[in-house]
Amino acid sequence: MYRLYLDEVGTDDLVHLEKDSHRYLSLTGVAIELQHVGDVLNPFIRDLKQSVFEIDPDEKVHLHRYDIVGKKGVFGQLRDANKLARFNAGITSLINDTEYTVITAVVDKLAMSRMDHWSTVHPYHYLMEILVEKYAQFLERKNSIGDIMPEARRGRKDKDLQLEFERVKEAGTTYISSERIESVIRANKLKFRTKDHNISGLQLCDLIAHPSHMHIRNIHGHPVKLGEFAIKVRDTLERSKYDRSYRGKINGYGIKTVPTKMEP
To answer: Is residue 241 part of a domain?
Structure first.
């Protein structure tokens, strides 16, 4: 059985779309077999934290890209060169050696807002439909089943996303029927979790989501800069982690953009 951990980059609002920071929204899913989560991912992340950071044993340390980059909170210890080197080596091993599959969908909200039907579509929900579709097709190829765990945004947004998930399961999509979705994603509820739950899969997804977002935009010629970490993640995703067809095609499997050609 697999679990798809979800994290977004960007905002789902429909204002100030001419600004780069508001224009693009992506949703990344990291699919991991649950036995691998318990046997490998959870102990790896726990041991990484314990080997690098001096922390209260009752304190939870959540790997959050924003805090790591800003060296906020416990990550302030990364100003120590030795700790930073050990941490970077551990994160590189985590991303390279863990067994997982990535699906990232990106939407250009400005381009889509100019289409007649878009006014009835919520951008985050649209991406969720794509992820459900791609994940179901992935599970079919694996001859397995799975569920979905988004990072909670709390309140009405989570309730609306749950309703959208139920709608997609009941109606299907253009490319996959409701029966096919139901046969591989049997749970009717999304498994919302917050950072306080300290979920390893969500932490791995957080580390990957932004580099994947930037890499896809870079493919489409956008004026974005990939840092050293993002380049390493990109290389790993392209080499072995993005979902792909039996013939190795990534576009349409591990990467989906709306519209297909996202003009900068």
So the answer is: yes
CATH assignment of the domain containing 119: 3.30.420.10
Give the count of domains, the chain.
1
Question: Can you list the alpha helix ranges (DSSP code H) found in 98-240?
Answer: 109-113, 123-142, 156-171, 178-184, 200-219, 228-236
Structural domain that includes position 72: 2-258
Q: Cα 106 from chain centroid?
A: 11
Is 264 within the bounds of a domain? no
Question: Residue 145: inside a domain, yes or no?
Answer: yes
Render pLDDT for 69-105 as a digit per residue (tens, 0 to 9).
999 999 999 999 999 999 999 999 999 999 999 999 9
User: Any residues with CB less than 8 A from the CB of 219 and at least 6 apart, and which?
Assistant: 255
Q: In which residue ranges of the chain is pLDDT below 70?
A: 117-120
3-state secondary structure of 105: strand
Please count the other Cβ atoms lying within 10 Å of the Cβ belonging to residue 232.
Answer: 17
Would you state the torsion angle of the CA atoms of residues 26, 153, 3, 174, taken in this order, to the nearest 10 degrees?
Answer: -50
Confidence (pTM): 0.95
- Rounded Cα distance, 222 and 214, in Å: 9
What was the pLDDT predicted at 22? Answer: 87
- Establish if 183 belongs to a structural domain: yes
Q: What integer pLDDT is reported at residue 20 of this predicted model?
A: 85
